[in-house]
Amino acid sequence: MIVASLLLIIIDPRFTQHRVPTPSARDRIVPLRPSLVSSSFPDQPSCASRQQLPQWRSSSSSNSSNKSPASPYLLSRIRDYEQRHKRCDPHSESFLRNSQELVRLTRSKDLAPDCRYIVWVPVNGLGNRMLSLASSFVYALLTDRVLLVDFDDSMSGLFCEPFPDDATWLLPGDFTFKGRSNGEKFRGVYSLGNLLEKSEKKHDEEIAVQATALLYLYLSGDNNYDMLFYRDDTQKLLTNVPWLVLRSDQHFVPYFFVMPGFRAELDRLFPDKEAVFQHVGRYLFSPTNRVWGRVARFYDTYLAKAEQRIGLQVRVFYPDKTPASLMLPHILRCMQVVSGILPRLQQNETSPTSSATRSRTLKAVLVASLLEEFYTELKDMYWMRPAADDAAVGVYQTSHEGWQETGNGAHNVKALVDIYLLSMCDVLVTSHFSTFGYVAHSLAGLRPWYLQNPGDYEAKRNEPACVRAVSPEPCFHFHPYYDTNSANHGDAAGGGPAPVIMNCEDYEWGFKLANLKY
Fold first, then answer.
1. d(CA 441, CA 385)
2. What's the predicted TM-score (pTM) here?
3. Rounded to an integer, what distance in angstroms lies between the CA atom of residue 63 and that of residue 422?
């Protein structure tokens, strides 16, 4: 995941209806109804984005908010969840009562917990975290659990509390359970995979799993016994375990559609399979004023007047193998030749133009990258020479950190600013395999152009520099490879029991959701 550089093409000042309201304009906002955002929220100055982002999205002609509204069933289930969360959150008596079972780590098999929890633990960069956190919330909806988050310092101050009535999703700082700080040895003993591996008979599995009050779920890509989590029979074993602690850096929602036990409910929740993360992410993630203020000010200053906002997100995984000198021609081949998003340059370097004598199209390109070179080269390119279509192209960037600092809170603020600015663009070009890019285009509901890995440029020079995504949904990179519930699913793109799953355009081994027709 990447902190982005932003390339902006500034556009005609007449197009002011896309202007993002700043916090000072809060009183002019009228929240949309019906909405995933509860009407129980007051008009909070402390979280201006909760009301202002839906207002901006409703007025944006390029945004897909109104093209795929949330289903009435999802709205009702969200409202039900909010009541459950309030009843079971860390301020409640139920939470204190259920916490007592963690002292002994065992529970009576005859006692059904009144509140059951899924505790999310952060792993890797911000894009990975947002994807896995949204997936964990979908799991909470499917299993009637309550989602709590064990944020580290680098996550504090990024998002507003998502649930109404003063409920919190934050695990208390003084709340301890064995294994939260006791190292990998304990967590290995009380992991789902460890218990299943040691159980040779089904009856043993039931006793081992159902008798415990706490289980760790490791769903970060290792093809081990923990991945048996994605079986219906395993889900039945987990039903009465009060505490599940989940550690994952993946967007694992797509595989739920392969599981027969979840499929019918998911179809009711999400009739449009290409708007799952969009709905969940927009509900769950409202940037704090610290983040939203930077987003609104940058947008108002550089993007609001553009006829077209172009987002370019560049993630260089191996700088030694793919230096900027190799990536830049690759990017231009994608944006000027393959997609036609950016205009080519005129050969005449001194061709005079005057905005006073002619109407010119203004374009804003937002470049998001840890590296500065892409912003600098593109900015100079469109400044030194005129565009072939006589468009005025401006190139902008919010930051260029140089390298990823996952545990740095200030770094994550800059990353989140870039994610939301990218999500407010009209068209997106993002890097293959980048979870940072996935979050941006999924929040926007846009089908991006994926930059392919140039690799051996000479060997791949005849291949497309980028491909258009079929669906805006993120990719589940590392899914299970066993036959779920003894059903041979085979190639995901081949249909079978889950015809809404396809192989990812940017990573052929991954799965993603799409509205497929067979």
1. 30
2. 0.88
3. 12
Coil, strand, or helix at residue 451?
strand
Partners of 465 in the β-ladder: none
Cβ atoms of 132 and 123 within 8 Å: the answer is yes
Measured in residues, the chain has a length of 518
pLDDT tens track for 342-358:
999 998 766 555 555 46
Please report, for residues 62, 127, 180, 421, the alpha-carbon distance to residue 425 in angstroms, rounded to integers and kept in the order given. 8, 18, 40, 7
Cα angle, residue 197 at apex, residues 229 and 180 outer, rounded to 5°: 65
pLDDT of residue 302: 96
Compute the distance between CA of residue 226 and CA of residue 220 in angstroms, rounded to an integer.
9
Cα–Cα dist 439/316, whole Å:
17
Q: Two tokens at 204?
A: 């043993």
Gap between the Cα atoms of 2 and 367, Å rounded:
11
DSSP string, 84-144: HHHHHSTTSHHHHHHHTHHHHTB--TT---SS-EEEEE--SSHHHHHHHHHHHHHHHHHHT
Query: Residue range 408-418: average pLDDT?
Result: 93
